[in-house]
Amino acid sequence: MSKKYLTLIFTFIIVATSSAADFSVSGTLASVSQSTTGGNARSWGTFGAGYINSVAMFSNQEYTEELTYRFTFPAIPANANVTGVTVSITRRGMSIIGALSNISIRDQKVALSLGGDNKNLNTTYGKTNETKVYGGTTDDWNVSLNPSQFNSGNFGIIYAARRNANGGATDQYAILSNIEVTVSYSVILPVEMIYFHGHFQTTDKALLFWSTATEINSQKFILERSLNGIDYEVIDEIAAAGQSSTPIEYSYLDRVVEQDDPIYYRLRQLDWDGNEHLFGPISLRRVLNNEITLYPNPVTDKVFIEFPKNRPVKSWQIYNALGQLVEASTSLYPVIFYEINTRDFREGNYLVKTEFFDGSYSMKRFVKK
């Protein structure tokens, strides 16, 4: 059993990836172009940064008004496999009263400028704002998609609205207040991460540790810290194994600023060919707690036990499902953290019984997988 002597409780987060990691990027609207199929369109409005306010006025004919919204995206790796495109369109509600209630505007076409399926729902505009979602993270719209099509800056979404002819000469508006496009893709990572986590060892020192299952062409890890979760600074660079097909463990002891708010960490893994991959972030926080905390749960190789800083612990025991004692310790104070090796524990349920110096007890359960 490995013991660690701490003075603080921390937040524990595991970040794991498989060798094929999934990502998504959202596009930024770049331009809008318009075309009309029959009928008599009055105008389409303009679009602004962050939102769209395109308006179509319709006369007394049935016809389709079509627009192409083009988007730019953050660069998608050339070796990525594009898995799907999600389009989210927010339509403004219409005010329909009395004799005008027979007017109908509906989605007629929602498709990629690259071709493929028309995903329109063919539903009429309602009286309240509504958001319609087309496609999805694994929907390729029945067309071959690759990163170059999105990196070119020419990718677009074609949207068409259609009005029936039952409203006489009354103008009617089709308004899109927002349109968002997200491209989902997967990339084979040169590093397969098992976990990335950490904890405080003292009031001003945090231990970060991570493990890789495999490494291919891996040069180094760049460890970054943030005190607000937004602005990160580089702490240090740690050399990677380079090539490995067996698990490798890394660790780093960081001297940190004493603050009650969370402290964030993330890892940048850099390949020898210049590509990099981001893991995390994880957050560590000094927290006072009146109860013991067990994690992870269920357990595989290790279970971490945190004891409350403000309730001195006299002893603790771990019992299996048969009531047999399998682990114990006494005279703990002021220790508030234990790391228990559970590799030799049988699968099943376990109970942790803790006695405090004030005479009270606490019971916590965990499952060994």
Strand content: over 45%
Low-confidence runs:
1-18, 39-43, 53-57, 97-101
Distance between the termini: 19 Å
Number of domains: 3
Helical fraction equals: under 10%
Taken in chain order, the helices and strands follow as EEEEEEEEEEHEEEEEEEEEEEEEEEE
| Radius of gyration, CA atoms, in whole angstroms | 29 Å
CATH class type of the largest domain: Mainly Beta
User: How would the global form be characterised?
Assistant: elongated
CATH topology of the largest domain: Jelly Rolls
Note the main sheet.
Answer: 5 strands, antiparallel
The second-level CATH architecture of the largest domain is Sandwich
Query: What structural class do helix, strand and pairing data support?
Result: mainly beta
* Count of β-strands: 26
Mean pLDDT: 77
Number of helices: 1
Tag the structure with descriptive keywords:
single chain; 369 residues; mainly beta; Immunoglobulin-like; 3 domains; five-stranded antiparallel β-sheet; four-stranded antiparallel β-sheet; 53% strand; elongated; disordered N terminus
